[in-house]
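**Sequence with structure:**
===
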Amino acid sequence: MHCEEGDYNTAHSYFLEAFEQLDQLTTSSDSTKCLKYMMLCKILDSLGKALKLSSKNVAGAKVGAKDADLTGLVSAKQAAKYASRDLEAMTAIAKAASKRDLKVFEKTAAEYSAELDSDLLIKHHLHILYEQMFESNLVRLVEPFSTVEIAHVAKLIDLDVVVVERKISQMILDNKLQGILDQGNGWLIVHESQPENETMATGVQLINSLGGVVDNLYERSQRELVLK
């Protein structure tokens, strides 16, 4: 539940508590699962913050974006005691994600598909992480352009044109990218980000509040009429 809400620190604390109890009971399979989830939380938290910072600041072009800190996912003692392909898979996917290279990430996920895809929690959140990396890379690549061929962007990111066009279209609809698609010419026309109009936002909020007051007054007057 906390993972789904993006509260990875809280999720990690619960998995850690479960791991410590299971570790004492020597139930290695359940302990390993908790350890994998702890590693997942660290990956998601570190990479998520780094990718958001990169998207906002265009990969550090304006303000230096820090790389995700994925060191020390597990202690040396844990790594030795629970050494397995499961932990190897999580360590490998962490290294791949830290490079923010989609092809490397895909290759690693395919190599350890048995360990990663068999767990629904890990599979689900690694898919979300992949999409975040995809979007962050696209924002970084299109930032220097006012108009750019989608085929050129696809070449830079080393993905199929159809896949890139679909993702860009979704990002525009979700307001994650300011621009329009000229599908006839195969272009992406990028718009400059407009600062949020605080006056308009305040005005809309005021109108909504006044609307609520008017509705309450109307309901009260209707109740008074019924009582009379």
In short: Residues 28-57 form the longest helix (30 residues).
